[in-house]
Design goal:
Elements: H1 4-22, E1 33-39, H2 58-66, E2 68-70, E3 73-74, H3 80-89, H4 125-131, E4 135-141, E5 160-164, E6 177-180, E7 183-186, H5 214-228, E8 234-239, H6 251-254, H7 278-302, E9 309-315, H8 336-339, H9 354-357, E10 361-364, E11 373-375, E12 379-380, H10 384-392, H11 406-409, E13 424-428, E14 434-439, E15 442-446, E16 458-461, H12 477-490
Helix pairs in contact: 1-5, 5-7
């Protein structure tokens, strides 16, 4: 007997099919659509087009072949919620309201799930699209405020939200519920937990499989949104949950990868769920993510919107960070060393070194963005608000921290990388307290600001040292002073996420 959620999904799909069949052959509004796809904890080197050799990612690689690939693009932060805040508001971490992953209940005990909400005053990308008459949808993981809070996605510009409101709930791929706007849709009874250890006995993947796999429901919803809104311009934000742990992908996905990869069973010693084949399971999640990108592209093609849709793909931060010192596994059983997930960059998720914040970035718009092109221009999530405004012809609001990458994408710079760009800023109070500033090719870093072991200022020349192995601060004190001047100008007080920076 099918569960209620299956009947619900079938009803939505059939309704969308009727809408699709009855839609007009040609859309009178010629404005471009925007689809922004965001992976969760995907490392800079985990795609074929960025050098990955073990995990095939043909759909994302095709997106890069049809468009532009960026080699020096950065997330808004080294962890989920603040990175998404920077993306949605165009404010870097010196100005962003959300600078960490704090649960809402810490400050707002009336909420039982969700993260600290962005305020009524925060103006998002979705709101500017919505006010311009676009249909707006967010399908995936939110993390910027509980339902009924000031950060509720329906209050921040999205006509439709479907997925996980809370990042902690998203640790399970078989949760008790997802949200459809303000309605809690139950999908698994019982749900599968996202955390459990198994110190002894046979570890079985089947122990952690539920009835309804949330990613499958969310990608179906994305396809429905595209079909339903094919006759008007739309902004679709797809924050996927792969490959964030816990690892419990469908067995058929795991079976695609060699059995001899896995020489050790993961027992949950680095948190999240056990798995008998952790390397294959991790690869399966990235492979599944790639398949979802392929389905989105196919839905755009089916709707006849390929040449009208700007497609963007990135990740919210770097690959999963190391676990306790007594295990070879990273958090959740991931093994970035085996996959060379950060492609030689220093650090992982939670770090402002390159491996924590340099992320894949691919854009495609046939006939506008040159195919098979590569840009080495530095950029980051704060740039996307002005970039998308320029792309679709919307007036940019005042006070954005980023700068538009649209001239680079469309060849307006004559194939040359721009010589001027704003300093890029990260002020991150978690993981010991960290700060970073990129000034041209120079990057300034300081660690441990909330610990007793505050580091000295570090300086790296990324043009010759992308792996950040050679600290040249001793001979570049002027660069440190330039970074301090930027921080004095660009960092505002944040009482919820405080961080004292020496020299300010």
């Amino acid at each position: 007997m099918k569960s209620p959620i299956v009947f619900f999904a079938l009803f939505v799909f059939m309704a969308a099919e009727r809408s699709f069949a009855n839609s007009k052959a040609d859309r009178t509004d010629s404005r471009w659509n925007v689809v922004f796809m965001l992976a969760d904890d995907l490392g800079w080197g985990e795609l074929g087009c960025y050098g990955q050799v073990k995990i095939p990612t043909p759909n994302i690689d095709r997106l890069a072949a049809d468009g532009m690939r960026f080699t020096q693009h950065y997330s808004g932060a080294p962890v989920c919620a603040p990175s998404r805040c920077v993306l949605m508001t165009g404010k870097h971490l010196g100005h962003a309201e959300i600078r960490g992953n704090m649960q809402a209940r810490v400050k707002l005990p009336e909420f039982t799930e969700g993260q600290i909400p962005i305020s009524d005053d925060a103006f998002t990308l979705a709101q500017i699209f919505q006010r311009a008459g676009y249909a707006t949808g967010a399908i995936g993981k939110w993390g910027l405020g509980p339902v009924a809070s000031t950060g509720d996605p329906n209050r921040k510009g999205f006509d439709l939200f479907f997925g996980y409101n809370c990042q902690s709930v998203a640790h399970s791929y078989y949760p008790a519920h997802l949200w459809r706007n303000a309605a809690k849709i139950k999908i698994n009874d019982p749900p599968i937990p996202g955390h459990r250890k198994q110190p002894e006995g046979e570890v079985r993947a089947t122990s952690w499989i539920g009835e309804n796999y949330a990613p499958k429901l969310m990608i179906q919803e994305a396809e429905t949104f595209i079909q339903t809104n094919r006759d008007k311009p739309f902004f679709l934000y797809l924050p996927f949950i792969e490959p964030h742990v816990a690892m419990h992908p469908p067995q058929e996905s795991v079976d695609k990868f060699p059995a001899d990869w896995d020489t050790k069973v993961y027992r949950g010693e680095s948190s999240y769920l056990p798995h008998p084949r952790p390397r294959a399971a991790y690869a399966a999640m990235i492979s599944d993510l790639d398949s979802y990108v392929g389905r989105v592209v196919a839905a755009i093609e089916k709707a006849g919107l390929t040449n009208r849709t700007l497609m963007v793909f990135s990740s919210d931060n770097g690959a999963t960070h190391p676990g306790p010192p007594n295990t070879d596994f990273h958090i959740g059983g991931a093994d970035p060393n085996f996959f060379k997930s950060n492609a030689g960059l220093r650090g992982y998720k939670g770090s402002v070194y390159e491996g924590g914040i340099r992320v894949p970035m691919i854009v495609r718009l046939p006939g506008v963005i040159p195919a098979s092109s590569v840009s080495h221009a530095p950029g980051y999530f704060a740039d996307w608000f002005p970039t998308l405004c320029d792309a679709v012809g919307l007036q940019k609001p005042e006070g954005l921290d980023g700068q538009s990458l649209w001239p680079i994408m469309t060849g307006m710079t004559g194939g040359k990388e721009p010589t001027e760009r704003k300093a890029m800023v990260w002020v991150f109070p978690e993981y010991g307290g960290q700060v970073a500033v990129r000034l041209g090719d120079m990057k300034v870093v300081r660690q441990g600001l909330k610990t007793k072991a505050v580091s000295n200022w570090e300086v790296y020349d990324l043009s010759v040292d992308a792996s950040e192995k050679s600290d040249i601060a001793a001979t570049h004190k002027d660069v440190v002073e330039q970074a301090l001047e930027v921080l004095r100008r660009e960092v505002t007080e944040n009482k919820t996420f405080p961080l004292a920076i020496p020299g300010l």
